[in-house]
Design brief:
The complex is a heterodimer of chains A (306) and B (278). Chain A has 306 residues and is of the alpha/beta class. Chain A is 33% helix and 29% strand. Chain A starts with 6 loop residues before the first strand and ends in a 6-residue tail after the last helix. The chains are: A alpha/beta (306), B mainly alpha (278).
Chain lengths: 306, 278
C-alpha cells in the first residue's frame, strides 16, 4: 500500500444558501494519530465531518479519505462513524441494530455472530442486548453507537461530539476506547468542544471558527511552549529586577509581585537561586502553564461561534 | 445485497410499528363486512319474485364486486402513501439516516431497498384485499368478473406509482409537505377523473380534456378507470355509466404512460436523494 495521509483536504467549502458553514477547510491527518477538531458550537465541525464522510457535498474544494476522493463509498468500508446526538432506529434491539450495520458493512453472518457479543461486552451492554434502543438512556445510546462505529475494525474512526451531555462514566469510556484505538494504530478524528477531553486524548489539534481552520498544532508543542511564572518575594529592587532579564525579556514588577515569561521550566530553579543569593525572601514561585483552554480563548476568541 | 438489507429493514419497521398488524386486522374486518353484505344481497336477489335472469344477476354481482374493488383500490393507495410518506424525510430529520449513508453503500441502494420493501408490502396487502374480495364473491355466488388478473395488475401499478411519488417527495420535502403534495396530486387525479367521466357521458369535449390533463399530471385515477373498464360486465359497458366503473376507457397509451410514470417517479426519488445534503 502506498503511503498517503489518512485525510487530506484542500480549501473545502460548504455554503447553505448564503450561509457559509465551512469557509476553508485545509488539513491533513496522518495515519494513526488522534486528531482533535476543536471549535465552539456552530463553528462548522459537524459539516466538516459530514463532508469527509460523503453525507454533505462540498460547494468547492477537494479532498481524499483513505486515498479515495470524497464521497467514494468504497473507502467507507474501513471507516467508522459515531454521529452526534446518537439517533438510531429505536425499534431495533441492540443485537439487531449491530447486525443491521454489520450487514451494511458487508460482513458475513459468522463474523458478526462473533464480533457483536465482543463489542457489546466492550461497551458494557451485554446485559441489555435484547432490549430495544427506544428504552435506552442517552449514555447507553452512546455506547451502542460506539460499538456500531467499531464493527468493521476500522482504520479511521470519526467521533462527532461523542461525550457531549454524558456523565463522567460515559466520558471515561470514550477516553478509554480512543486510547485503545490509538494503541492499535487506528486514526481517530475527534470533533469536540470539550477541551479537557481533547487535552487528554489527542496528539494533534486544529482550531476551527466560522468554518475556518485557524491553527493546527501538535498538543506536545502547545504544552511545551512558553510559560509564565509568578513570583512573590520581599526586598526586590530595580537592580535585582534588571538582573532577571538574563532569563526573560518580559519582566514585570509590582511591589512584592513579579511576573515573567520563560521559554521553559528549566529556568525556574536558577531564578530561585539567583533571588535567594541576593538576599531576597522568596515566598512563592508559581509556574502558570498555558492550558488548552487559554490557547482556545487566545485563538478562537471569547465570543465563541456567534 | 444492500438493497435486500434495506428492504428487510423496511418490512421489519412496518412490523414493529404495528403497521402490518393494523392493516391486516382492518383488512380482515373489511372482508368480513363485505362478505356479509354480499352474501345477504346475493341471497335476496336470488329469491326475488321478479326472478331475474342470469344476466341481470351477474350485473348486480359485478356492481357489488366493483364497489368492493373501488374500496380496495382506495385503501391500497392510502397504504402506499401513508407507509412511505415519512420514510426518507423522517430518517433525514431524525438523523437515523447518518449511520446508514456513512456505510460503504450507495445512496440509490437505500432508496431502491425501501421501494422494494414497500412494494412487497403493498403486493401482499393487495393480494389479501383484492384476492379476498374476489374469493368471497366466487365462494358466495360463483361469479368471477372478466379480466381480474389484468385488473389487479393495474391496481398494483397504481399503488407503486404513488409509492414512487411519495418517495420522490420525501427525498426533497418534509414529511408534512410531502403528504400535502401526494394527496393533492391524488385529489387532482380523482376530481379530474370524475370530470372526464361526466364529460364523456354528456359528450363535452372540454370536460374530457380537463380529465386527460389531470391524468397526465398523475395517472392514478386513469389506471383505476382502466382496471374498472377491464373488469366491468359487458352490460355496464353498454349502458355507459355506473359510479364505480368507467364510461370512457383510458387508452393503452395511458397505461404505458402510467408505467413509465411509476418508473420515472422511482428514478426521480433516487436522483433527488442522491444529490441532497444529509
Amino acid at each position: 500500500m502506498t503511503d498517503f495521509p489518512t485525510i487530506i483536504t484542500q480549501e473545502l467549502k460548504k455554503e447553505f444558501g448564503d450561509k457559509v458553514a465551512v469557509a476553508d477547510l485545509t488539513l491533513e491527518v496522518e495515519k494513526g494519530e488522534v486528531f482533535g477538531f476543536l471549535g465552539p458550537n456552530g463553528a462548522g465541525k459537524t459539516t466538516a465531518v459530514k463532508m469527509l464522510l460523503g453525507l454533505i457535498y462540498p460547494t468547492s474544494g477537494k479532498g481524499e479519505v483513505l486515498g479515495a476522493p470524497l464521497g467514494d463509498h468504497r473507502a467507507r468500508d474501513r471507516v467508522g462513524f459515531l454521529p452526534e446526538h446518537f439517533r438510531f432506529h429505536d425499534w431495533l434491539t441492540a443485537i439487531e441494530f449491530l447486525h443491521l450495520h454489520g450487514n451494511l458493512y458487508h460482513m458475513p453472518g459468522e463474523q458478526l455472530n462473533k464480533r457483536v457479543p465482543e463489542l457489546l461486552e466492550m461497551v458494557g451492554l451485554e446485559g441489555h442486548a435484547q432490549k430495544k434502543l427506544g428504552t435506552y438512556s442517552k449514555g447507553m445510546l452512546q455506547r451502542i453507537g460506539l460499538a456500531q462505529a467499531l464493527l468493521n475494525d476500522p482504520v479511521l474512526v470519526f467521533l462527532d461530539e461523542p461525550t457531549s451531555g454524558l456523565d463522567p462514566v460515559g466520558r471515561r469510556l470514550v477516553r478509554d476506547i480512543i486510547r485503545d484505538l490509538s494503541d492499535r494504530g487506528t486514526t481517530v478524528f475527534l470533533n469536540s468542544h470539550l477541551l479537557s477531553e481533547v487535552e487528554i486524548t489527542c496528539d494533534r489539534v486544529a482550531f476551527i471558527r466560522h468554518g475556518e481552520v485557524l491553527l493546527t498544532s501538535s498538543l506536545q508543542s502547545l504544552v511545551e511552549g512558553e510559560l509564565t511564572v509568578e513570583v512573590r518575594a520581599r526586598g526586590l529592587d530595580q537592580d535585582i529586577v534588571a538582573g532577571l532579564k538574563h532569563w526573560s525579556q518580559n519582566v514585570r514588577a509590582d511591589g512584592e509581585h513579579l511576573t515573567l515569561t520563560l521559554t521553559g521550566e528549566a529556568d525556574i530553579p536558577e531564578i530561585n537561586h539567583y533571588l535567594v543569593e541576593n538576599g531576597i525572601e522568596v515566598f512563592a514561585i508559581r509556574p502558570k502553564q498555558l492550558s488548552l483552554e487559554d490557547l482556545f480563548i487566545q485563538v478562537v476568541g471569547t465570543e465563541g461561534g456567534l | 445485497m444492500t438493497t435486500v438489507v434495506i428492504a428487510r429493514l423496511t418490512f421489519r419497521e412496518a412490523g414493529r410499528r404495528k403497521i402490518l398488524l393494523a392493516a391486516l386486522l382492518l383488512g380482515i374486518v373489511y372482508l368480513i363486512i363485505y362478505g356479509l353484505g354480499f352474501y345477504y344481497v346475493n341471497q335476496d336477489v336470488n329469491r326475488s319474485e321478479f326472478g331475474p335472469g342470469i344476466l341481470e344477476l351477474n350485473q348486480i354481482r359485478n356492481f357489488l364486486f366493483m364497489a368492493g374493488l373501488y374500496v380496495v383500490n382506495f385503501l391500497t393507495v392510502m397504504m402506499a402513501v401513508l407507509t412511505s410518506v415519512d420514510t426518507l424525510s423522517g430518517e433525514i430529520s431524525s438523523g437515523t439516516i447518518h449511520t446508514l449513508v456513512s456505510k460503504p453503500v450507495r445512496r440509490w441502494e437505500i432508496v431502491f431497498g425501501k421501494w422494494i420493501g414497500f412494494a412487497g408490502m403493498l403486493t401482499l396487502y393487495l393480494l389479501l384485499m383484492a384476492g379476498g374480495t374476489i374469493g368471497l364473491v366466487y365462494f358466495i355466488s360463483g361469479y368471477v368478473a372478466p379480466n381480474v388478473l389484468r385488473g389487479l395488475g393495474l391496481l398494483w401499478m397504481n399503488a407503486v406509482l404513488l409509492l414512487g411519488v411519495s418517495l420522490a417527495g420525501g427525498a426533497m420535502l418534509s414529511t408534512l409537505a410531502n403528504g400535502v403534495l401526494v394527496f393533492g396530486l391524488f385529489g387532482i387525479a380523482f376530481v379530474g377523473g370524475w370530470i372526464e367521466q361526466i364529460g364523456s357521458f354528456i359528450q363535452n369535449q372540454t370536460a374530457i380534456n380537463v380529465g386527460i390533463i389531470s391524468s397526465l399530471l398523475i395517472p392514478s385515477e386513469a389506471l383505476w378507470k382502466r382496471a374498472a373498464f377491464e373488469m366491468q360486465s359487458p352490460i355496464v359497458s353498454a349502458l355507459g355509466f355506473s359510479p364505480f366503473t368507467s364510461a370512457s376507457m383510458p387508452s393503452t397509451l395511458m397505461v404505458i404512460y402510467g408505467l413509465v410514470y411509476a418508473i420515472l417517479a422511482l428514478l426521480l426519488a433516487i436522483f433527488l436523494f442522491n444529490r441532497r445534503d444529509l
